[in-house]
């Protein structure tokens, strides 16, 4: 079975834009992705697309960065994943049965 290549890397201009984001903006991206997650599996591309079209979204941030944030949320235990996380169309995520709780 042939898959499309992995998601591309951020270019220098995109990396610069990401570096300029505030902590609040970064948190807003993660919150938007987590708000769209569900206990049922959802495509990463679905979460990314809807998070990017949210009226409160951070403008100028590419889809690739949103997909990277999904991978980070998986690594933090805030989402569970299946499939190929380096290909947002070939991976799915869901809220974990036992979510990681934030500590004050």
Characteristic key phrases:
single chain; 104 residues; mainly alpha; Arc Repressor Mutant, subunit A; 3-stranded antiparallel sheet; 10% strand; DUF3658; DUF3658 domain-containing protein
CATH topology: Arc Repressor Mutant, subunit A
Percent helix range: 40-55%
The whole-number mean of residue pLDDT values reads 88
Overall, the morphology is globular
Give the strand tally: 3
Oligomeric status of the shown chains?
single chain
Short description, anyone?
The protein is mainly alpha-helical and 104 residues long. It has four helices and three strands; from the N terminus they run ααβααββ.
Give a written overview of the molecule:
The protein is mostly helical and 104 residues long. It has a single domain, classed as Winged helix-like DNA-binding domain superfamily/Winged helix DNA-binding domain (Arc Repressor Mutant, subunit A, Orthogonal Bundle). It has helices at residues 12-19, 23-36, 44-53, 63-75, and strands at 42-43, 80-83, 91-94. It has a three-stranded antiparallel sheet. Strand 2 and strand 3 form a beta hairpin. Helix 2 packs across helix 3 (44-53). The longest helix has 14 residues, at 23-36. The radius of gyration is 14 Å and the shape is globular. The termini are far apart.
Q: How are the SSEs placed, and which strands pair?
A:
Layout lengths: L11 H8 L3 H14 L5 E2 H10 L9 H13 L4 E4 L7 E4 L10
Antiparallel strand pairs: 1-3, 2-3
């Amino acid at each position: 079975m042939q898959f499309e290549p992995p998601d591309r890397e951020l270019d220098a201009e995109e990396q610069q834009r990401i570096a300029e984001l505030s902590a609040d903006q970064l948190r807003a991206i993660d919150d938007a992705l987590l708000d769209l997650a569900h206990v049922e599996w959802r495509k990463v591309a679905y979460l990314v697309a809807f998070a990017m079209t949210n009226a409160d979204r951070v403008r100028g941030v590419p889809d690739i960065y949103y997909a990277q944030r999904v991978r980070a949320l998986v690594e933090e235990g805030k989402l569970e994943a299946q499939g190929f996380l380096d290909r947002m169309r070939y991976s799915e995520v869901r809220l974990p049965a036992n979510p990681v709780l934030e500590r004050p």
